[in-house]
Write a structure and sequence with these properties.
By secondary structure, this protein is of the alpha+beta class. Helices cover about 20% and strands about 40% of the residues. The longest helix has 29 residues. Strands 1, 2, 3, 18, 19, 20, 21, 22 and 23 form a 9-stranded antiparallel β-sheet that branches.
Length: about 300
C-alpha cells in the first residue's frame, strides 16, 4: 500500500521516543486437571524421529526420554539459534568493553545482557525440544510413529496410560508457545480461588484446529476435574514499547507516524499484544525513533487524503 507517507503539514509536538525495556512475556490459557486418562506424547518441533526407546506395554516415568528428534530442520534451527547466541554474546562482550572505556552506559550493557540471556534461553529450549519425554508415569499403550518418521509440531508419537494421579491439560496460543520445552515451570491457578499449584511442562499432546497448542503438565496436589488457568513466564528479553494510541489501523495493517529528519511520515509496524497503555513493537521501528502520539490517526489520514486528487 503506502511505503512512506510524507506530510507537509506541521506536526504536533506530541511525539515520544521509542524505548527499549526488559520484558518477561507471560503465556496463559485455559487449563483443567485430568484424571488418569491416556496421555498422548507429541513432537514440539518439526524433525525426524531418529530414535525411539520404548515399546507397547513398557512402563515409563515422568520426564523419561522416550525418543529423539533430528534431521535437517532441527540441525538448521539449532545452527540459527547457536549463531544468534554467539552474536549476542559477542555484542555483550563489546558493550562491556566499551563501558570499561567509558564509551557505553549501564543501560546499554543491561540490554546486551538481556539479549544474550534470551538467545541462550531460545537455544536451550530448542535443544530440550529435540528430546521427547513422557509427561506422566504409566504404561505405553501404543506407538503411532517409528524411527525415521518425519514429524510436525503436535504430531502424535505414543500414547501412555497413567499409572495413577492427575495431570494438567492446558491450551496456549501464539508463536511463543511453540518455543516451550519440557521441564519449564508454570502455575496452575484454580478458578475456585484455591491456592495455585506449581506444575512442570512434560510434553505436547497435539494442536487444535484453531491453532491452540495442547500441553501436558505434571504436579502434586492436583484435584481431577478442577478447572482454571495455566500461567507460564518466559525468559526476559528486550522489547520496544510505544504508547498504544500512537498505532493506526488501516486496511488490516498497523502504522505509526514517524517523526525524523525526513519530516513526518507513516511507517508500517507489526505490534505485539497491548499491555495497558503500551504496546510492544515486533518490527518496523528501532530504539531512539520518535513516533507521534498526539492526533496520530488524524495526521495519518490527512496524509492519505493529500495523495488523491479530486475528480474533474
Amino acid at each position: 500500500m503506502l511505503a512512506a507517507l510524507v506530510l507537509t503539514a506541521q506536526a504536533p509536538s506530541g511525539w515520544v521516543t521509542v524505548r527499549t525495556t526488559q520484558q518477561a512475556p507471560i503465556l496463559s490459557g485455559f487449563a483443567a486437571v485430568q484424571p488418569g486418562t491416556p496421555v498422548t506424547i507429541a513432537a514440539l518441533q518439526p524433525g525426524v524421529l531418529t530414535s525411539l526407546s520404548i515399546t507397547p506395554g513398557e512402563t515409563v516415568q515422568p520426564g523419561q526420554t522416550i525418543g529423539l528428534l533430528g534431521g535437517p530442520q532441527i540441525a538448521a534451527a539449532l545452527a540459527t539459534a547457536q549463531g544468534a547466541s554467539n552474536a549476542a554474546n559477542t555484542n555483550l562482550a563489546a558493550e562491556r568493553g566499551k563501558f570499561a572505556d567509558h564509551l557505553s552506559t549501564k543501560a546499554a550493557v543491561a540490554q546486551a545482557e538481556a539479549a544474550a540471556k534470551a538467545a541462550r534461553a531460545d537455544l536451550s529450549a530448542l535443544r530440550a525440544a529435540s528430546s521427547l519425554q513422557s509427561p506422566v508415569a504409566g504404561q505405553v499403550q501404543s506407538l503411532t510413529a517409528g524411527p525415521g518418521a518425519s514429524l510436525q509440531p503436535g504430531q502424535a508419537i505414543a500414547v501412555v496410560q497413567p499409572a495413577a494421579g492427575a495431570w494438567v491439560k492446558a491450551v496456549l496460543f501464539g508463536s511463543q508457545a511453540a518455543r516451550l520445552s519440557p521441564g519449564m515451570a508454570a502455575r496452575f491457578i484454580p478458578a475456585d480461588g484455591a491456592p495455585a499449584v506449581s506444575v512442570t511442562l512434560r510434553g505436547v499432546q497435539g494442536t487444535q484446529p484453531d491453532g491452540g497448542l495442547v500441553l501436558a503438565f505434571s504436579g502434586t496436589g492436583l484435584q481431577p476435574g478442577e478447572a482454571g488457568t495455566l500461567s507460564l513466564s518466559l525468559s526476559p528479553r528486550p522489547v520496544l514499547l510505544v504508547p498504544s494510541e500512537a498505532l493506526v489501523l488501516d486496511d488490516g495493517r498497523w502504522w505509526v507516524m514517524l517523526h525524523d529528519a525526513k519530516g513526518d511520515h507513516a511507517v508500517q509496524v507489526v505490534p505485539g499484544e497491548a499491555e495497558g497503555a503500551q504496546t510492544p513493537i515486533l518490527s518496523g521501528l528501532a530504539a531512539g525513533d520518535q513516533v507521534i502520539v498526539q492526533d496520530a490517526a488524524l495526521l495519518y489520514h490527512r496524509g492519505i487524503a493529500a495523495q488523491y486528487q479530486p475528480p474533474d
